[in-house]
Design a protein that fits this description.
With about 525 residues, the protein is an alpha+beta fold. It contains 18 helices and 19 strands. It is globular and about 65 Å long.
Amino acid sequence: MNQPELSPVDQFTNEETQAGWRYHLATNHSLESVQHSSHRMEWDNQPLPFKIYPSLDGERLAGALTSTGIPAVSALSLPPVHGDAVPTAEDLAALLFYTGGVTKVATVAGGGRLHFRAAACTGALYHIEIYLVCGPLAGVDAGVYHFGPHDFALRKLRDGDYRQVLSEATGGEPAVGTAPAALIFTSVYWRNSWKYQARAYRHSFWDSGTMLANLFAVGAARGLPLKLVSTFGDVQVNHLLGLDADREAALEIVPLGSVSGQTLPDPPVVESLDLEVQPYSRWEVDYPAVREMHTASSLASGEQAVELWGNPPLSNPASPSGPEFSLVPVAETDVPEESVEETIRRRGSSRRFRRGGITFAQLSVILRGSAGSIDADFLGGSDGSLNQLYLIVNQVDGLPAGSYVYHRHMETLEQLAEGDFRRQAGYLDLGQELAADASINVYILADLEAVLQRYGNRGYRMAQMEAAIRGGRLYLGAYAQRLGATGLTFFDDDVTKFFSPHAAGKSVMFLVALGRPMRRGRNIPITGS
């Protein structure tokens, strides 16, 4: 292809994993780091939660966002879809809406408006953007587009079929080569670091991961093959989208659908884009640790990406040695009839839980859905995982209170310690009451040493995003059963210590509290968008 020469990438040092450890340890929360933090949010400089291209007209997505009628929990537990399928205009609209669309608008004190999205996001700051790269689709010309949730519209950044650029950037990943279209997720760092500082890089994968959980659930319900592609030449993909990679960078690629035997055409030359973007704030604060970690985990080419496909390290090599509690079989008649889309529309983040129990059957549905297989390039088609689920059970009918580890292939909870750990749960959640009041807290941990050894610094992205997908599934499994859920942050080393010796050497990637939500107060009226 006749493409312009891109910037040199010899500074990428994926194999030098001390960079991954340096970032992770520097952004760990501890009681001391939280108590001594001097960071204050400057409310008069809060970032705009949308990316706006003032010079581009948007074309509103067509297609009624109707229910598929497929039960939410069944869709969560479906294996990945395979075979040929081309997304329709309605499919595309539904995938984008239920992944990143505005589902509710809150009127807050002073007359302001808060736009809630389909998936959970740290601090409701919504820093993840979605782009579409496609060949000709029904109702959509071939091109590169940005999805605008604020007006539910696509804006064309490039005209023409650029799918071959993605194929080369991913090393010829088969799902990319056969896909009629692909979504690319990016993070605008400042829109999250305004509140969370350098820890925002973790949140890039937490928040895109919960969106991916929605995307894969809706795709499964609609019979569309989707795959998570996390390895690609970063410069090529960022250049295709016209990103300033120091401020916004590509995180994941998800090919949509499949057409066997298709040949991708040669793309137009990928010229530089110089499109005006509305400023997010009056000023931005740079956190070098974010940029350094992204560069250290970047890949120079598709050839490097291929080396990171498959062969995941074992996340659960040890057999249970403590008391075991097998998950409860759930009859089809016990599965809620509500569709995935209806569940997502209702989903929120619980602000308070009332102390009360859920049933072991309800927990069994949630755990099965969360721990199901993920079709991802770094897992290589195996039913593997880089993470393991640990639980603090406060109140579950049919399960003693205590701490547990979940063995996903055996569908068994191994009890690590029996007892009332509400106080400890509240402390581990940075001293908040949510975790103490919840019925269960699910911590998702990874053997980061093994992950970095296999994948280099890129493995840090993989472990975080996979944990967040499983966390997003916890949300969906809870809300499908009319329960509540909320993602929380944590004191990193204290969580590992609490679950040790079983969790010794592991690092926390994600935390979700589950339980019975208190009713919302009436001071914030919520209206449909």
